[in-house]
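Researcher: Re-running this chain for the archive, since the previous output was lost when a drive failed. Same request as before.
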Amino acid sequence: MKTNTSTTLTPDTSVQTKLTHTTFLQREHLSAHHTYDDEMRQYEYAKQGDFRSIEESKRIFQGDSTGQLSNDPIRNAKYLFVASVTLLTRFCIEGGMPSEIAYTLSDLYIQKMDEIHALHQLYTLHSEMFYDFTARMAETRTSKSYSKKVLLSFDYIYLNLHKEITVSDLAKTVDLTPNYLSSLFMNEVGMSLSVYIRSKRIEAAENMIKYSSFSLLEISNYLNFSSQSHFSKVFKAQTGYTPKLYRKLFFRHNW
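Model: Regenerated structure tokens:
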């Protein structure tokens, strides 16, 4: 006679109780977790080879608003370290770092972390890790020999993906005429400004779909798409997936 070993899984009510209590305390003491934008900025900087990633990572990793995954400070920091290196690795691969190098670096830093038993040493290693990944991305980026004006354009576009970006405004920022900037950008990057901006919005959308709980409509609105249907169309054209299917397949995948 077969024994039925299947189990019906139900949410642990103690978790919901703890969640409600902790959220209340965070509101009372203004200790909410970092916002999604705040959290992701450090990884975007690293991906772009921008050394502001190091100060951002210090502020986030050593701040008071990081999540509490353990009551033990060292263990908690190690859990956060692993989450951090996982995201850093994924962002840098997306930015062009060879995956075998990125994953090997990730493994090496986790092995180093495992040997540490002091909080200040974990902080130091975390900063060293961000410097290492960022320096490698900077080398990858500069090897393409972009001019200063184009690099400034990259930065402006990244910082303003949630707003309307016009060639006129961008040209003023980098002190060029719109026509000259458009021509320069096409020659160096190999695509028009409008195509580049759209591709970066979709890259940002991919990360938000994978790593945040924002709805697809919220992501569409935040990234300044004219409508959710337009967002879905552009997203599918670039990734091969609809936003809905992308979230189903990749939401915090293997994280």
